[in-house]
């Protein structure tokens, strides 16, 4: 699946979610929601590493939660970029891929 198609599908899910709960996805919401998801990813990571309470979850559940939180962060990033008109593939190319031929 291409990133543009993924973004539009995620947008549809997010728009339906917001409509069902009756809130507006404002500029602030996109940033704060991403921050919330990054926090949840950090918590899942710490739980998976045994550095936070596992809350009764076994290793398979902790791994699944970690994967799910990575997906949440990616999707919220896609939504934030879409909302602000950022061409994410171009931004990645300009910021990261210019270093492909450089020695680090």
From TrEMBL:
SUPFAM superfamilies referenced in this protein's UniProt entry, alphabetically: all-alpha NTP pyrophosphatases
InterPro entries attached to this UniProt entry: MazG-like_dom (IPR004518)
Domain NTP pyrophosphohydrolase MazG-like: 26-93
Descriptive protein name: MazG nucleotide pyrophosphohydrolase domain-containing protein
Organism: Saccharopolyspora halophila
């Amino acid at each position: 699946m291409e990133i543009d198609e993924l973004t539009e599908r995620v947008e549809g899910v997010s728009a339906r979610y917001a409509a069902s709960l009756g809130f507006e996805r404002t500029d602030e919401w996109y940033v704060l929601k991403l921050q919330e998801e990054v926090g949840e990813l950090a918590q899942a990571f710490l739980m998976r590493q045994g550095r936070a309470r596992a809350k009764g979850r076994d290793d398979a559940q902790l791994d699944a939660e970690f994967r799910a939180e990575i997906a949440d962060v990616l999707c919220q990033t896609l939504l934030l970029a879409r909302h602000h008109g950022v061409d994410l593939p171009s931004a990645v190319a300009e910021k990261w891929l210019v270093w492909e031929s450089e020695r680090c």
